[in-house]
Write a structure and sequence with these properties.
binds calcium ion, repeat, 1 helix, 1% helix, EAR, 4-stranded antiparallel beta sheet, elongated, mainly beta, 37 strands, signal, 510 residues, Methylamine Dehydrogenase, Chain H
């Protein structure tokens, strides 16, 4: 799976510089012996200690941006002290890499000014600390870290897929509902076993665009949006087939059964949420007829007496694509991704806040064919990231390589402020996930103006630097990414709007 693995053969770095002339050591190099352990101490770098990096990295023209040195330590019962090694790799005489290791093993010593720069390895915690002159800073802790992704399953589906929803059904396990394009074959629910997703139930849909699951009491529900028959239909049934259906899981039949039908308008997304133990659904109505994007989206509320969802509030939207609900402390927010007003994609998306039983405008944010909002938290910090699809103004050309932006909630200023811009290619989905103590975002890039074969990119949170790209995953017409875990393993699945396949990747950690 991972080509670079083949090059991971152990190298004795010291042998590159020490065994040239065994009769004498070069200036600035001393042998040291502490408690029966011999080591080499480099007090000052000398140019004769250099060696070309090509000796280390065979078939590698350029020195890589990321480079790891694995230090293997044999831990004896007595505290051992090692001082080692300065590695210098010179390209045209320039110092590219310097490493100074001075490491303590065993129980904690007080970090003082004299120990500044010293590393301390705790064998029981398997953690590595650095003394900054005052305190020990944690450099490494024994925890899960993302290494690489392994293709786990290529799932053939009856047609192209616009959306995946992964959820748990008590007594059944993990399931995935997929919004397949074709009205002839409809959509399907898949059941997970360790080898992958297997077809479980076919459900009649007409150009399905989105699935969403929700739970009321102990009952599991699914809602799907239909957007006409799509190109499969030979005559115009659009108005008849433009609706959404709520299904309920029947424990008895072990199937999803039809529960309620709602009139929607090419709904791109359903969001389910609870406020004060009441269940609400929000639908993102995208357009009415062929061209009217300036329409209302609807918040529905569960009525316990009639046992149906009823209209609670209408909110004006512009080609709405996505709703995202989130809660910060005592405050409930709902943000809409507005995509298009019929003329331009330069439209405002709106963050609403729940006040006295209804949503009111909290903040508007300029977006460009916004297709998705994803909220995530890192520690106490609250972020919102938008997927911008493309820039289109009146009848001008469309731009697909544009910024999608991460915003951070400024609690004092009571508004979201720009945190980081990331270039995306007609982005249609962001998915946030964490592994151990690492945080990631994956973006679904769908189109660059010429091709649908593009990389989706996984970004890793690096604190001050924000999110940096770490993995590139080739996709075709990517429409959705979902993260899920099963039996301690983590997975990502993506769907394609251009090919009848979905792919599951297993996240390999070290
Ligand atoms: Ca989804
Ligand atoms: Ca979303
Ligand atoms: Ca997603």
């Amino acid at each position: 799976g991972h080509p670079t693995k083949f090059y991971l053969i152990p190298l004795d770095l010291l042998s590159f510089v020490l065994e040239r002339d065994t009769s004498k050591l070069v200036p600035g190099v001393h042998m040291k012996q502490v408690g029966g352990v011999r080591g080499v101490h480099f007090s000052s770098p000398h140019t004769s200690m250099s060696f070309p990096s090509s000796q280390l990295l065979v078939n590698c023209e350029l020195f890589p941006r990321e480079f790891s040195i694995v230090v293997t330590l044999k831990v004896s019962s007595s505290s051992a002290k090692r001082e080692a090694s300065r590695v210098k790799s010179a390209e045209r005489g320039r110092l590219l890499l310097g490493l100074r290791l001075s490491r303590e093993l065993g129980l904690e010593r007080l970090c003082s000014e004299q120990l500044q720069g010293q590393l301390w390895f705790h064998p029981l915690r398997r953690s590595l600390y650095l003394c900054d002159g005052t305190v020990w800073i944690t450099l490494l802790e024994d925890r899960k870290r993302l290494d690489y992704l392994l293709e786990h399953q290529v799932l053939s589906t009856s047609s192209e897929t616009h959306d995946i929803e992964v959820f748990q059904v008590p007594g059944m396990g993990l399931m995935a509902a997929m919004a397949h394009r074709s009205a002839a074959s409809g959509s399907a629910v898949y059941l997970w076993n360790h080898t992958g997703f297997r077809l479980y139930q076919n459900i009649t849909t007409y150009g399905a665009l989105a699935w969403r699951h929700f739970i009321m009491g102990k009952k599991v529900f699914l809602v799907v949006s239909n957007c006409g028959g799509g190109p499969d239909e030979h005559f115009n049934k659009e108005s008849l087939m433009d609706f959404s259906v709520i299904y309920k899981w029947s424990k008895h039949k072990k199937q999803f059964v039809r529960f309620q039908t709602l009139q929607t308008h090419c709904a791109r997304d359903w969001e389910a949420f609870k406020i004060n133990r009441m269940t609400y659904l929000a639908v993102a109505n995208h357009r009415q007829g062929n061209n009217n994007h300036t329409i209302d989206s609807v918040i529905y509320k569960w009525n316990r007496l009639t046992k149906t969802f009823e209209v609670h509030q209408m909110l004006p939207t512009l080609g709405a694509y996505d709703w995202e609900f989130f809660t910060v402390g005592p405050y409930h927010f709902l943000v809409v991704a507005n995509a298009f007003d019929g003329v331009t994609t330069f439209v405002d998306s709106v963050i609403y806040i729940w006040i006295d039983g209804s949503f009111q405008v909290f903040q508007t944010i300029k977006t460009f064919c916004a297709t998705d909002w994803e909220m995530f938290q890192i520690g106490s910090r609250v972020f919102l990231v938008v997927a911008n699809g493309h820039k289109l103004h009146v009848n001008g050309p469309s731009q697909y390589a544009i910024n999608s932006t991460i915003y951070e909630l400024n609690i004092i200023g009571k508004l979201f402020v720009r945190f980081q811009d990331i270039v995306t290619y007609s982005a249609v989905d962001w998915e946030f996930f964490s592994l151990g103590e690492e945080y990631f975002l994956v973006v679904a890039n769908s189109f660059n103006g010429e091709s649908y074969s593009l990389n989706s990119i996984i970004y890793r949170w690096q604190g001050y630097e924000g999110f940096v790209p770490v993995h590139w995953l080739p996709t075709i017409g990517c429409s959705d990414w979902e993260f899920f875990s099963s039996k301690g393993e983590s997975y990502l699945i993506y769907s394609s709007a251009k090919l009848p396949i979905s792919k599951v990747f297993k996240l390999k950690t070290y």
